[in-house]
Each structure stands twice: as C-alpha cells, then as structure tokens.
Amino acid sequence: MAVSAGGSTYTAKVCSLPTKLVVPVYTDGSRKEIPGIGLVSGSGVYREHKHAHLSLKVHPYGQGMLNTINRAELVALLIAVRHCRPGVKESIATDSKCSMQKIGMHLRSPSSTVDDCHRPLLEAIGHEIMQRAQAGDETILLKVKSHIGIHGNEMADKLANEAADECCMNRHFDYDLSNDYTQPFRDKFWFQHTIQVQTAEGPVETKACIRDLDDSLRKALHDKHKLGQPKQDSLYFQLWDKVQPFRVKPHSDALWTMPSIPESHKRNIFKYRTGQIWNKNIAFKRRMPYMPGQPIARDTRCPLCRGDDSQGHIFGSCMHPDMSKQYIARHDKAMRMSLVSVPYMYRNMRSDRLQRRFFKSVSCSKKSVL
Ligand SMILES: [Zn+2]
Fold it and tell me: Would 183 be classed as within a structural domain?
C-alpha cells in the first residue's frame, strides 16, 4: 500500500514493489501474561542502517480494552512513521496484517474506523503518512512473515519482548505512549457497561466503554440479560427436558403446518410455550389493565379464586369450580389421545434403549399397550 500526493486528493493504492527497496524499518508488538501482574505489552522498532540506525523499545501499555496486541503493533508503526526521513522513499515492515488493513481502511475511508477503539492511533498514523505524502514523500507498508528468519523482524520482535518484560519494572523506555491515545470514543455517545476491577482493596465495580459493536456488545448484553441461561430448576423446563429424547421431529412439529388446527389455536399454543398466556400477574408486572376498560391491575390475584394468578394457575391449580371442571376434562382428553399415540410413537423409536426409557416414563407395560 502506498500513499502519494496526487493533486488535491490523496488515495491509497496497491502498487508493485520497486526493485530496489531502501532498508525497511521493522516493527513488532508483543503481549504476554506475567504471573502476579497480568497482561503486559511492548513494542519494538528496528532498522539496520549505517547512518540511520534505529533500535527502539516503546511502552504502549493501554488499560482495559486498549490492552491489546493490536495497540502494541500500531504504536510501533506510529513510532516508525515518525522516524521516516524526509525526502526518502521509506518502507515500514510489519507482520501484523490486521494493523495494515486497519490503516488502509482508515486512509481510504476515515468514517469506516469510527467504531474502532484504536481510532486515535489510526488517526495519528494516518496524519503522519498524509504529511509525508503532501511533502512528496512516499511511504510503503510491507507485510512480512514472522519467525522465518528475517533479521530485522527478529530484532524488532526481540525489542518488543524486552519492552513487555520491562513494562512492570519502571525501566527507561525510548518512548512511553502509555498515557497517549487512550480516549477512544471521546466524541461520541457510546455504550458503557459495569465491570469488576481488581484493586488493592478488593474488587470494585466501575463503568467502562464496550470495545466494539460486534462481539463485545453481544457479550455485554448476554451477561446483562442472562441470555442463553434459562432457569433450569423450573418444572416446565424439567418436563420439556424429559420428553426431548422421545421427540419424533417430523411429527412433534407437525401441528404448526396442520391445516385442521385453526390459526388462533396455534397462536395460543405458541403463547403457552413461551409463557405469554395473559393473566393478572403479567398485567400487574406490565402495569396494564387486566381487562379492557378496567383500571390498571394492582395485585396478582386470580379474579375467580383470589389465588396467585399465573399461566400454571389457569391451566392446573385454579380452585374455582368452573376452572377445575375444565382442566379435568382437558387432562382426560389429553390422556386418551396420548394413549392412542403410544404404539405409533413406539414404532418410530429406533433403539431398544429409547423404547425401554419411554415405557418407564409412561408407566405402561409393553404388552398392554401393543
Ligand atoms: Zn384462580
């Protein structure tokens, strides 16, 4: 990728490499776990040159979401661009494809990186490259393979590793960027969530920005709303769990496409399965009237028996005589239907083990049913 001055507009273009390159500036970042301290990072910049030798250890350390290998790589690139000589067509080598892509994206379309937590660094790198381009100096970013014996890359890697090791020892660094470019979403409204931070006095809750609108947002919402963690001790969950092994897929789901079942019934079944059958409890929680024209529900009591109303109450435990008659009749009908379907289900079961478990669960003997 090269950035060159072209009239009033500046474009990033893919170019073929010149046959004779000047000695590139090699950059690398390192991030490692140090027991008792946590994750630390360091950056290295290296150029072997008779007159412009470079061997720099940089402290890139970012807190929280900024403590990434990507930040370490970008900090190394920023220092490298700052050391490019005026009037010389410079090349900077990195083994981080991700950093190269981000810089490319930022140069081509700055709006595409507004949600990136490393945006301040990308802006600084872009600014340096643009300034060089305006002065007529070309800057080439090179992607090199790591750990294949390229001397400059190995040296940059070594410097980055040393910088990471010394990060916690308060040693002298050639550059300390640990307090720079640390405010990612300063010009925007951004999502925050509560996180626990370990301090000397113990864990403390604090607010922190989420890193991106993709995985980080998904995870924050997941934790906040307990998504994917159903209440597993409820009777309803346990009953469903118990019947799962006996489910014959094409027949268990057939009711949704059966023309003989009216849409209104299907809607009610769906409401029942998702716990949304209208009752006083839901009306109370949503601060709505239980019936049209009534005031807002003030309690969760059943209008018929004054017991605690719920979906389970309506279908199984309401003590009002009319309701009791209804669910006894419903229960008998369901039992008759299931007894008719037992031999059919039995034939659809592939393994003996499944059949044995099935009979155990319906408490019928094989002979009497078949
Ligand atoms: Zn009731």
Answer: no
